[in-house]
Amino acid sequence: MRASHILVPTLRESPADAEITSHIYMLRAGLIRQLAKGLYTWLPLGLAVLRKVENIIREELNNAGAMEVLMPVVQPAELWQESGRWDVMGPEMLRMKDRHDRDYCLSPTHEEVVTDLVRNVVVSYKQLPCNIYQINTKFRDEIRPRFGVMRAREFVMKDGYSFHLEEETFEETYRAMFNAYGSILSRIGLEYRAVEADPGSMGDGESHEFHVLAESGEDALAFSPNSDYAANVESAEAISNTDRPLPTAKIEKISTPGILTIEAVSDFLGIAPSRTVKTLIVEGSNGPVALVIRGDHTLNEAKASRLPLVKSPLTFLKEEDLLRETGVTKGSIGPIQLGTPIFVDHSASNLADFTCGANEEGFHFSNVNWGRDVDLTESVDIRNVQEGDLAADGSGLLEFKRGIEVGHIFKLGTKYSDSMGATIQDRSGKNTPFVMGCYGLGVTRIVAAIVEQHYRDETMHWPIQVAPALVHLVAVNNIKSEQVREAAFSFYSRCLDSGIEIYFDDRDERPGVKFADADLVGLPYRITIGERTLADRVVEFQSAGKEIELLTADEAIQKLINANKRSS
Question: What pLDDT was estimated at residue 322?
Answer without folding.
Answer: 84
